[in-house]
């Protein structure tokens, strides 16, 4: 679809994208939503801003959970990387937990930030297997769902059991398919680890549930073969620290207690003002919530009022194409389709080892061949997310102006500080500026901020902006604010006031109002915490989202500059490096979502407390677009010194070294390396010395005798700071020793 088309003289028609007009919000990263995102990446609806809200950067695939618990799969084998998937779909990913939804105001409440508005939304948040009605469950047990919590706890328990530090046994409450399958998986893993811990399966009914007679008999035999004690007709009265107490007084000794006795809705959803069935959201055959045409639901959190079915992942997968079509139809005025779930479906149940049982329509089979079949099905599903379609770069026109330095450079421009102009180009431009003639301008270009004399006080002023590296404008605003404040903190000043500058892509007034509200709330929180206030600003429409701030601060006494470093000073860095490499890889769909999420969490943390501790520094700067080497060289040139670096002491963000080794570079990396060469730099860390940082760490030269105390104080405040080298008396010389 085209927004407009114009003819250029002797040129091709110009196509402009549709302005953004509607907000589609997917709440939860369940199987149905994951498939919708994949489909959306290939067939987006122009004019729609797509958002995914999920607590974490990955979503586990439930079909492979028993195999992971048994030890057949690694944890990452069953994780759908939502960061990569969101990038592919062109969606913004908000890493937060939903706590409520208001269908009247069309807002989603979140745990860690303000509400997110929507025009159309969909729920796919799964279920929980927690059993709050059983006394002691919350203190001493956990549910099989959410899967990630269970998987993490199990890995810890298994490692302790394998090392002989944990001799307690395992109890599983619930003899349905999930409970039986997980009991066998844990028993297999314990045997393989050489542990003597026993597994007990507890079911209140008179027999195992969820399967036919033949399947139950075979499952009992498989449990017996793994040494699992099966207790049926056994009601749980309470759970204590060392086991399960049954209603008849018997006690089952256990240190790892798992609840798998049925599906329960998340509490916030069960308490929402929505049509519910036992806490699950009632939906029509269109997957629309009954009576609420702007809200859909799929997966285990939904109750199919027209065709009730048990909670099983197969229905979420089958519903995904209908959900994708209907979401687009609801946004564009199209006709909705009906979802008709199958009445009979295949159950493939892992039997602990590499064997499985299959049941459908009364037919039951088991054996290793069925496990291989199940594995092929599961791997084929996961491959849909591991190997996302690759979008080809557009072909170069036959006739074009040539750039002798980069004749075929179609690499996408990085976001954040990776999109800065190179240091030599900038330095050349700044050198042409006339020197300040006013007496109240104490410092000019070159330092982190200008220092002004006002009424006997020192005021520092700086400006900075970031080209969007994330579609989450609230998070971008928060990081941009912290990034701009870095210059104020680096000079030892207290933040005072800020002007905001926002460029947004073309969008409807309603959408722009939502976006601006998110930006101002996030940035306002940062400046308020820093003791400053946003006092004005400017906004405009442009090609892409850009957020920047002009910030002032007040310094008590002399401001810290880059010119005071002394030979022998210790160099202290408050944050790892490698953010530019990870962000470049994320934009290309090559970064691990968990590494991206961890990086963003660090970038979104203010450094006011670190700056206060480093107020004693002889020289200080924040490491941003010119990389660690570039900003260190600025200190050395201004101070008439050099510096020695210890590569092994420099911290890097998780994943950054591997990506650098793989050849991932930020846009400005080459220019940074040419502007600040480092003798002896080698390997991946040598590459990262020139990596542009966004909201990077503070780099301080402090007296060597004070370094240990400074590092201890930083650690007490939660900063993973490091002593990375020392200032030398060799002017302008950087080297690795």
What labels describe this entry?
737 residues, alpha/beta, FAD/NAD(P)-binding domain, 60s Ribosomal Protein L30, Chain: A, 4 domains, six-stranded mixed β-sheet, globular, disordered N terminus
Provide a brief overview of the structure.
The protein has 737 residues and is an alpha/beta fold.
Largest sheet report: 6 strands, mixed
CATH topology of the largest domain: FAD/NAD(P)-binding domain
Helical content band: 25-40%
* Whole-angstrom Rg: 29 Å
Name the CATH class of the largest domain: Alpha Beta
The share of residues in extended strands comes to 15-25%
* Unreliable stretches: 1-14
CATH superfamily of the largest domain: FAD/NAD(P)-binding domain
What would your notes on this structure say?
- Residues 1-14 have low confidence and may be disordered.
- The chain has four domains: 4-127 and 265-341, FAD/NAD(P)-binding domain (3-Layer(bba) Sandwich); 137-259, FAD/NAD(P)-binding domain (3-Layer(bba) Sandwich), CATH 3.50.50; 448-560, PurM-like, N-terminal domain (60s Ribosomal Protein L30, Chain: A); 561-737, PurM-like C-terminal domain (Phosphoribosyl-aminoimidazole Synthetase, Chain A, domain 2).
- By secondary structure, the chain is of the alpha/beta class.
- Helix 1 packs parallel to helix 3 and helix 14 (579-587) packs across helix 15.
- The chain contains 21 helices and 38 strands.
- The protein starts with a strand and ends with a strand.
- The strands form ten sheets. A six-stranded mixed β-sheet has the order 7-4-3-11-23-22, with helices on one face.
């Amino acid at each position: 679809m085209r927004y407009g088309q114009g003819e250029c003289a002797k040129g091709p028609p110009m196509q402009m994208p549709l302005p953004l007009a509607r907000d589609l919000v997917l709440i939860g990263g369940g199987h149905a939503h994951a498939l919708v995102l994949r489909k959306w990446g290939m067939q987006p609806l122009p004019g729609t801003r797509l958002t995914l809200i999920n607590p974490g950067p990955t979503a586990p695939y439930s079909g492979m959970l028993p195999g992971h618990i048994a030890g057949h799969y690694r944890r990452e084998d069953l994780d759908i990387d939502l960061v990569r998937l969101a990038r592919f779909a062109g969606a913004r990913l908000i890493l937060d937990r939903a706590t409520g939804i208001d269908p009247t105001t069309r807002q989603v409440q979140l745990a860690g930030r303000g509400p997110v508005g929507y025009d159309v939304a969909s729920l796919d948040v799964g279920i929980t297997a927690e059993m709050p009605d059983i006394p002691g469950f919350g203190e001493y047990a956990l549910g099989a769902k959410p899967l990630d919590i269970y998987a993490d706890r199990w890995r810890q328990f298994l490692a302790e059991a394998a090392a002989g530090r944990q001799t307690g046994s395992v109890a599983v409450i619930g003899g349905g398919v999930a409970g039986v399958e997980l009991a066998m998986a844990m028993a297999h893993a314990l045997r393989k680890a050489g542990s003597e811990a026993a597994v007990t399966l507890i079911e209140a009914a008179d027999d195992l549930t969820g399967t036919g007679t033949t399947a139950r008999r075979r499952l009992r035999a498989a449990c017996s073969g793994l040494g699992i004690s099966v207790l049926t007709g056994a009601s749980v009265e309470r759970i204590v620290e060392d086991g399960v107490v049954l209603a008849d007084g018997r006690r089952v000794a256990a240190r790892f207690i798992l609840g798998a006795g049925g599906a329960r809705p998340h509490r916030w959803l069960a308490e929402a003002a929505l049509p519910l069935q036992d806490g699950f959201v009632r939906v029509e055959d269109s997957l629309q919530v009954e009576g609420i045409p702007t809200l859909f639901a799929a997966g285990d959190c939904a109750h199919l009022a027209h065709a009730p079915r048990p909670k099983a992942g197969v229905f979420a997968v089958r519903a995904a194409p209908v959900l994708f079509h209907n979401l687009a139809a609801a946004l564009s005025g199209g006709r909705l389709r009906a979802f008709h779930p199958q009445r009979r479906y295949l159950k493939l149940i892992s039997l602990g080892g590499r064997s499985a049982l299959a049941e459908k329509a009364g037919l039951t089979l088991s054996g290793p061949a069925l496990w291989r079949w199940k594995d092929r099905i599961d791997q084929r599903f996961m491959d849909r997310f591991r190997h996302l379609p690759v979008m080809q770069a557009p072909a170069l026109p036959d006739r074009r102006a040539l750039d002798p330095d980069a004749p075929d450079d179609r690499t996408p421009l990085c976001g954040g500080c990776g999109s800065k102009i190179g240091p030599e180009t900038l330095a050349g431009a700044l050198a042409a500026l006339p020197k300040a003639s006013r007496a109240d301008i104490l410092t000019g270009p070159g330092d982190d901020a200008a220092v002004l004399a006002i009424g006997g006080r020192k005021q520092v002023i700086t400006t900075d902006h970031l080209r969007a590296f994330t579609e989450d404008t609230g998070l971008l605003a928060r990081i941009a604010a912290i990034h701009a404040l870095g210059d104020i903190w680096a000079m030892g000043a207290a933040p005072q006031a800020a002007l905001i500058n926002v460029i947004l892509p073309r969008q409807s007034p309603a959408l722009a109002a939502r976006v601006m509200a998110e930006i101002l709330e996030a940035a306002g929180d940062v400046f308020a915490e820093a003791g400053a206030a946003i006092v004005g600003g400017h906004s405009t429409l442009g090609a892409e989202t850009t957020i920047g701030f002009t910030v002032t601060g007040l310094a008590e006494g002399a401001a810290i500059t880059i010119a005071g470093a002394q030979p022998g000073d210790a160099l202290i860095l408050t944050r790892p490096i490698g953010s530019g490499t990870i962000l470049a890889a994320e934009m290309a769909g090559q970064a691990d979502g968990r590494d991206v999420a961890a990086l963003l969490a660090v970038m979104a943390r203010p450094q006011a407390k670190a700056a206060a501790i480093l107020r004693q520094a002889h020289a200080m700067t924040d490491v941003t677009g010119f990389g660690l080497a570039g900003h260190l060289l600025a200190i050395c040139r201004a101070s008439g010194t050099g510096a020695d670096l210890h590569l092994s002491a420099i911290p890097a963000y998780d994943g950054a070294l591997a990506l650098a080794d793989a050849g991932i570079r930020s846009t400005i990396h080459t220019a940074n390396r040419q502007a600040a060469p480092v003798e002896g730099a080698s390997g991946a860390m040598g590459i990262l010395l020139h990596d542009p940082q966004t909201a990077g760490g503070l780099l301080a030269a402090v007296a060597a005798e004070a370094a240990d105390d400074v590092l201890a104080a930083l650690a007490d405040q939660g900063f993973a700071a490091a002593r990375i080298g020392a200032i030398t008396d060799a002017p302008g010389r950087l080297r690795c020793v």
